[in-house]
Amino acid sequence: MRGLFLFLLLVWSLGTPPMAQAEEALKIGWLGQAVEQPPLLANLPPPPDDEGLIGARLGVNDTNTTGKFLKLSYQLEEVSLPVEADPADGVRQLAARGVSLVVTGLTGEALDKALAAPEAARMTFFNAFAPDDRLRGPACRPNLLHTLPSRFMLADGLAQSMIVKKWTRWLLVTGPTPEDALFAAAIKRSAQRFGAKIVEEKQWTGDADLRRTAQTELIAFTRSKDYDVVVVSDEAGDFGDYLLFNTDLPRPVAGTQGLTPMAWHWLMETWGSGQLQNRFQDLAHRPMGSRDWAAWVAVRAVGEASVRKKSLDPATIAATLHEPDFTVAGFKGVPLSFRSWNGQLRQPILVGWARALVTVSPQDGFLHPTNDLDTLGLDRPESTCPQK
Length: 388
Known about the structure:
The chain is of the alpha/beta class and 388 residues long. 33% of the residues lie in helices and 17% in strands. The chain has ten helices and twelve strands. It has helices spanning 2-14, 53-67, 87-96, 108-115, 151-164, 178-194, 210-221, 273-284, 290-309, 314-321, and strands at residues 25-33, 73-81, 101-105, 124-127, 144-146, 169-174, 197-203, 229-233, 253-255, 260-262, 349-353, 356-361. A five-stranded parallel β-sheet has the order 2-1-3-4-5. It has a four-stranded parallel β-sheet with strand order 7-6-8-9, with helices on one face. Helix 2 (53-67) runs parallel beside helix 9 (290-309). It is globular. The N and C termini lie far apart (77 Å).
């Protein structure tokens, strides 16, 4: 008994051993902002409020699963801004939390404002929302990477799928918004690039109520020279769906409606993607969309770079993402890598409609000297990015 008392007295005099320190985690930021949806003719459900965010959360979960074997840990720091907020304030909030790697769910205009914050110069951003080609061209930045495909990539993926079907004569229908004009410009570029012909371009003004007059209005509107397919540019989804089965000639519809190019499709099942789909469904209680996938793969790229270097240092990770041999798995059948000239993630483009995945581009026969994925979007010789 006396021996036990002396032992306890010795322990007390030496002090209790310090608690094991909690494992340090790499902070990955999410910066999103609500967008005011314009009034639409079509009665479409709005995008999910958590679009992209759930993809980032799943990316952190998956990255922690692989990182734990190397005792690497990751956590998501979330900032979701209201419509009227300044995105630069979100950057400042994340910087104050010690975040240097940020996945963004912002429009192109909002992303410009976020990157204008002085704190942004010391951070690396992943664009998971904005398809604007100017962000991959004259407005590119060395600390901005893109995991969502650009409009040029989407248009090229769609164009290749139509060329192999010998749909080479296109009637182009463009909506009234600036975004519609940008996608239409991408379609015209793809037509010239791959040898298709736009037989006529028509501008939809949005004056008619297609819910009541689609059959008469659109049959007259699509009367033109012979064409193989109607290609529509209607990014808001206001009128494009009404073109299906309402054209003057019995022809398919493609573009932003009908046969559509996308980063991800909820019915993708090959290359093990069914497991990813199930994990996302369990977390979000809805199917995975293109922006969800883009946010997920951005976080996975961070995790892959971290595991490769066995490091949680943001500067080391950012440098690794730009290494020529860096790749990340995205459940698309091929390794994905960032283009050195504009920071765009090389990736196949899925082409399908609402209830089926039809094909995946690049198509057989569309070849490139170094990487066939570079037949999609801006290739190095075309790049206007000052940092290339």
